[in-house]
């Protein structure tokens, strides 16, 4: 309607005064329709509030949604519907960043924690996770998200993982300052979390949960894929320090999966993680990652 009036004004079929009158009349008619629709919607919401018997509505019904109507004879009519999250009765799902760091090694038939260098084995992760409460008191939560992680391992005894189709643990053959194998991975963790939570109810009907200074325990797993593999060597040759990096020429598995559990208080947890998949496809080296450390979540 507004576009047709503007078109008629541009074609000099009507005057600017007639155009303003047409827009104002259209705005008044539309405002009346919107008002009647909102009255009907409010009545339906009130009926749901009276008749609801399950906790589903307690979580899903947003009592404080608001809408605004803007009328302009120049720009036409715009309707903005806003949902103020702070005023929702229940906030069922929250989200935030996670940060993890710790120690890891490869465990297998002929490999264990004592086969690896303690200072140069490390794990790091950075992710984003969602937390959805599963009960009215927020004592059971579903945790899920996405996470980048890097696994760094270095064999002791001047050994390394060979390249090619058949990975082997072999002697390097010369003295090195560093022979670190690293994999960068993207994983999707999923946990069921149990923990304490304080429930606070406000006079306007809002309910909030506080997990500050509460113990929690989570158990679940993860699945993902390997993005890159590399071996970093550092050694001296003819009086010079040589740094060498060998990338993506390893017999590694692409898909990865495993189990993960954690326990902690507030935002700090101690976690343990174990891969079920073998690091290498050919099974020439039996090796699965074992990781433990601190996670902020």
Strand content: over 45%
Write the element-wise H/E pattern from the N-terminal end onward.
Answer: HHHEEEEEEEEEEEEEEE
What is the CA-atom radius of gyration, in angstroms? 31 Å
What's the helix count?
A: 3
Q: Give the beta-strand count.
A: 15
- Major sheet size, sense and barrel closure: 8 strands, antiparallel, barrel
Content-based structural category: alpha+beta
**Fraction of residues in H or I helices:** 10-25%
Segments where pLDDT lies below 50 for 5+ residues? 52-66
Our count of domains comes out at 2
Q: Termini, distance in Å?
A: 53 Å
Question: Averaged pLDDT, please?
Answer: 84
The shape, in one word, is elongated
Region (Disordered): 1-21
Protein name: Outer membrane protein beta-barrel domain-containing protein
Fold topology:
Layout lengths: L1 H9 L5 H36 L3 H6 L4 E8 L3 E8 L9 E15 L14 E12 L6 E14 L5 E3 L7 E3 L6 E18 L2 E4 L5 E4 L4 E23 L2 E8 L7 E11 L2 E8 L12 E9 L1
Antiparallel strand pairs: 1-2, 3-4, 3-15, 4-5, 5-8, 6-7, 8-11, 9-10, 11-12, 11-13, 13-14, 14-15
């Amino acid at each position: 309607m507004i576009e047709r009036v503007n078109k008629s004004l541009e074609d000099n079929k009507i005057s600017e005064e007639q155009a303003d009158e047409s827009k104002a009349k259209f705005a008044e008619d539309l405002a009346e329709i919107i008002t009647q629709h909102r009255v009907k919607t409010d009545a339906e919401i009130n009926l749901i509030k009276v008749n609801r018997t399950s906790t589903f509505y307690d979580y899903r019904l947003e009592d404080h949604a608001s809408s605004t109507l803007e009328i302009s004879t120049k720009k036409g009519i715009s309707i903005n519907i806003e949902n103020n999250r702070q005023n929702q009765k229940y906030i069922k799902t929250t989200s935030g960043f996670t940060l993890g760091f710790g120690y890891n090694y490869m465990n297998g038939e002929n490999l264990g924690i004592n086969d690896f260098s303690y200072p140069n084995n490390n794990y790091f992760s950075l992710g984003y996770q969602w937390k959805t409460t599963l009960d009215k008191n927020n004592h059971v939560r579903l945790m899920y998200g996405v996470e980048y992680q890097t696994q760094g391992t270095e064999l002791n005894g001047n050994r390394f993982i060979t390249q090619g189709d058949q990975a082997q643990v072999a002697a390097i053959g010369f003295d090195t300052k560093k022979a670190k194998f690293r994999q960068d991975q993207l994983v999707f963790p999923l946990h069921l979390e149990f923990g304490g939570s304080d429930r606070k109810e406000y006079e306007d009907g809002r309910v909030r949960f506080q997990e500050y200074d509460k113990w929690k325990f989570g158990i679940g797993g993860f699945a993902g894929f390997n993005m890159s593999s590399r071996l970093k060597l550092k050694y001296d040759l003819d009086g010079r320090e040589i740094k060498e990096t060998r990338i993506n020429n390893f017999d590694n598995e692409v898909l990865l999966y495993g189990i993960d559990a954690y326990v902690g208080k507030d935002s700090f947890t101690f976690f343990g993680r174990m891969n079920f998949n073998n690091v290498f496809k050919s099974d020439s080296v039996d090796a699965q990652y074992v990781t433990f450390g601190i996670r902020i979540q």
